[in-house]
Structures are given as structure tokens and as C-alpha cells.
Design goal:
The protein has 434 residues and is an alpha/beta fold. Helices cover 28% and strands 18% of the residues. The protein is globular and about 55 Å long. InterPro entries: AB_hydrolase_fold (IPR029058), LACT/PDAT_acylTrfase (IPR003386).
């Protein structure tokens, strides 16, 4: 299929609204995102580049396919069409077409990923904000819209002083060299234009992309061009959720797509193995996945991938485990912000039907409902490992996605950009908190 089974945005609205109370579909949680409140203009608008998280920007595709997974799928399109988000992915038949279009094919000999045969994929809007503000063309699935609008309200200008750096989030940085070159060029361009070093802001996995980028720049370059790095909800030590995603799939509350079906696509993204809990920081005896026959720790990834019948995942993990796994400090001033105080999975328990069934139980610990606070708080170690200041703010009661549009976070980001030095260590965002 191309851009839609039926080109009707009303269907998308009804569908998303129907899901609004589902359990954790992170895009639905920001359907009709909150508007930013009016603010007095600021005299300080240093240049800012936003790097989104996994699934956090639009992708487009053009196809001329040799074969089809279903006769109703489009075989060829003359124009680029939305791949993410695509209305087709919500349709019973459309999901097969979508998975075949968005999936990557991994070659364990060359250790490289490629698009499905006959599929071209591109990332629209590099250097602009539209592709990260809303993930769909109907402007319903909002992501960075509220944050960008807040910045505009205080004097920033879209695509000028605040810009987006979307990327192909299916790929880890080792396969995204062109993107990293583009990001470096964008930093230098904004520096020259505004005669001011640039702030980088990353959310979730986007913060790992920023860290990888900074780790590969000379310190002299960072001293000249980078004013600071703002990280939001970064899984510095990896995350536990990708283990469930890879084992049995996670539809994030989309009722017409089964976990097993969406697992086909989720296994094709190299970024899921990359974000598995890092061996260097997690206890070697912590059980992440428990089954009647075996308990899997971070020392058992090879067996884990073999037992879930996804051995390519082992090679993907081998390719990516050292990209940011040593947590080398960024070498720039850092503001590390994340949510705490919410139950977050740290162990998935399966019955004998593993891996082709949902977990029968989950063990929880503290976190932001997606990433554990143990992982996100690892930025604290950099206070002793780099000369540049490291500021840490924990937001009690704030979820992983809410951090990109909660008013208290937006105000804190504004204060950082304005150069204000008062950085609170904890902010309570629970209902009734001051």
C-alpha cells in the first residue's frame, strides 16, 4: 500500500481518540498536544538543535517492489509517501504492507542493514522542526510541538534559532555516518550565523546519539561550537523494555496490531539491540527475563537471541554494544533531566510458551514508567569524570514522554538557555505539588 488504504483523516482522528486511554501507546498520549503558555519574550535565544528519540521523527518512502506480501499492497509509487506515521499501519492488512516497507534487512556477513527490496526511505525536514513537532501530516500526533512553541513564545524562530535534527531511527550511529556529518555541519552553520555556541537537546535514545556525536569530536571543537547538552529521559545504561520488544513484541496499546505481528518490525531495527541493558553498568546477576527453563541476565544475550529465534539480533548487539556502552563523558556542560517515582519494569516473567506470548508477570522498580532511574541517573558519574559542570534534575511523577512537554520542564529549559544558574535537584510534578 502507498500512503493510505482510504485517504480519510477523519478515520485517523476517530482511531486515535478511541485509543486515548489505552495503556501506554506513546503517540496517542500526545494526540492534540497541549499548547504552550504565553511567555514574555527573552533577550537570550542562543541557537538550539533538537535530536529526537526512537520513533521520534517522520520517515518517507518510495517503492518499486519485485514482490508483494499481500495482493492489496501497492507495488510501485511515483511519489514519496508517509512511512512513519502511516495510517496503513493501523489496518489489518495494511500492517503487513507497512512492516514490509519499513523493515530493515540485516546482513551478518557485511554487518550492515539495508531497506527491503525495492524500497527507498528518506528522512524529511533535516534542519527544520516540522518533522519532529508532529509525526503525521494531519498534525495530530504531537511530539516536540509544545516545546518548540514554548521557545517561539519566548523569542525563538522556527528553523532559524531552533532547529530539528531528525534521523533514520531504525539505524544505530555506526550505520548513520552521513547523519553525523550533517549534524556537525548544522552546528557549525548555526554557530557562524549567530556567533554563539550551540545547545544540543536530546530525548531518550536521541541523547545517546548526541553522546556518540560528542564523543567523536575533538575537545577543541566542542569548546568552540557547543555551549551545552540538555538530555531528557536518557537511558544511559540501556533499558529493559527492548528485551520484551525483541522477545514477544510490544504493541504499545494498539488493539488491532498484535504484539507478535509488530515484533516483525521491531526486530528489524538495529537500535533495539543497541539499547539493551549495558553490561558495563548493570549487575551481572540481575535477571531481566525469567522463564521456566532459564533466567536471562546481561551475560546471556547470545542465548537469549538464540532462544527467541532471532540470531541476527546477537550480531546487531555485537555491532552496537560499544558505541556508547562505556559511557565516556560528553566533554561539555550537561543538564541531565529525567522522571522518577513511577513503577517501571526491570524483569519480565514468562511461562513455558516463551517467547511467543506476553509476559505473565512483571517486576517493577523506580523510573519514569519506561526507563529505570538506575539507568537514567548514571549521568551523575560524569561529575567526577569531566571538568565541565554536570547538573542533574529529577522530576518526581513525570513519565518518559511527558518530559518533552511538561510546563515545569519547558520552563527549566528556558532558564538554562537564558543562562540562569539556579538548577534544582528535584522538582515534584505530581498533582497537588507546588
Amino acid at each position: 500500500m502507498g500512503s493510505a488504504v482510504h485517504p480519510c483523516s477523519v478515520l485517523l482522528v476517530v482511531f486515535l481518540l478511541g485509543l486515548h486511554h489505552s495503556s501506554g501507546f506513546w503517540i496517542v498520549n500526545v494526540v492534540f498536544p497541549p499548547n504552550a503558555k504565553s511567555k514574555a519574550p527573552s533577550n537570550s535565544t542562543p541557537p538550539l538543535i533538537i535530536v529526537p528519540g526512537n520513533l521520534g521523527n517522520r520517515l518517507e518512502a518510495k517503492i518499486d517492489k519485485p514482490t508483494l506480501v499481500h495482493w492489496m499492497c501497492y507495488k510501485k509509487t511515483e511519489h514519496w509517501f508517509p512511512l512513519w506515521i502511516d495510517l496503513n499501519m493501523f489496518m489489518p492488512i495494511g500492517v503487513d504492507c507497512w512492516i514490509d516497507n519499513i523493515r530493515l534487512v540485516y546482513n551478518k556477513t557485511t554487518r550492515r542493514s539495508s531497506n527491503s527490496a525495492g524500497v527507498q526511505v528518506r528522512v524529511p525536514g533535516f534542519g527544520q522542526t516540522y518533522a519532529i513537532e508532529f509525526l503525521d501530516y494531519n498534525k495530530l500526533a504531537g511530539y516536540f510541538y509544545t516545546m518548540v512553541q514554548h521557545l517561539v513564545n519566548v523569542g525563538y524562530t522556527r528553523n532559524e534559532t531552533v532547529r530539528g535534527a531528525p534521523y533514520d531511527w531504525r539505524l544505530a550511529p555506526n550505520e548513520n555516518a552521513e547523519y553525523l556529518t550533517m549534524l556537525k555541519n548544522l552546528v557549525e552553520e548555526m554557530y557562524e550565523q549567530y556567533q554563539h555556541p550551540v545547545y544540543l537537546l536530546g530525548h531518550s535514545m536521541g541523547s545517546h546519539y548526541v553522546l556518540y556525536f560528542l564523543n567523536h569530536q575533538p575537545q577543541a571543537w566542542k569548546d568552540k561550537y557547543i555551549r551545552g547538552f540538555i538530555s531528557l529521559g536518557a537511558p544511559w545504561g540501556g533499558a529493559v523494555k527492548p528485551l520484551r520488544v525483541l522477545a514477544s513484541g510490544e504493541n504499545d496499546g494498539i488493539p488491532m496490531i498484535s504484539n507478535i505481528k509488530i515484533r516483525e518490525e521491531q526486530r528489524m531495527a538495529a537500535t533495539n539491540p543497541w539499547m539493551l541493558p549495558f553490561q558495563e553498568v548493570w549487575p551481572k546477576d540481575h535477571v531481566f527475563v525469567s522463564t521456566p527453563t532459564f533466567n536471562y541476565t546481561n551475560q546471556d544475550y547470545q542465548r537469549f537471541f538464540r532462544d527467541i529465534n532471532f540470531e541476527d539480533g546477537w550480531y546487531m548487539w555485537e555491532d552496537t554494544k560499544n558505541l556508547t556502552g562505556d559511557l565516556h563523558p560528553p566533554g561539555v556542560e550537561l543538564w541531565c533531566m529525567y522522571g522518577v517515582g513511577l513503577p517501571t519494569p526491570i524483569t519480565y516473567i514468562y511461562d513455558e510458551e516463551f517467547p511467543n506470548v506476553d509476559p505473565v508477570d512483571i517486576v517493577y522498580a523506580d523510573g519514569d514508567d519506561t526507563v529505570g532511574s538506575f539507568s537514567m541517573s548514571l549521568c551523575k558519574r560524569w561529575k567526577e569524570q569531566q571538568e565541565q559542570p554536570v547538573h542533574v534534575t529529577e522530576y518526581r511523577g513525570l513519565t518518559h514522554l511527558d518530559i518533552v512537554y511538561h510546563e515545569k520542564v519547558l520552563n527549566q529549559i528556558q532558564h538554562i538557555l537564558e543562562g540562569k544558574s539556579d538548577i534544582p535537584q528535584e522538582i515534584d510534578v505530581r498533582p497537588g505539588a507546588d
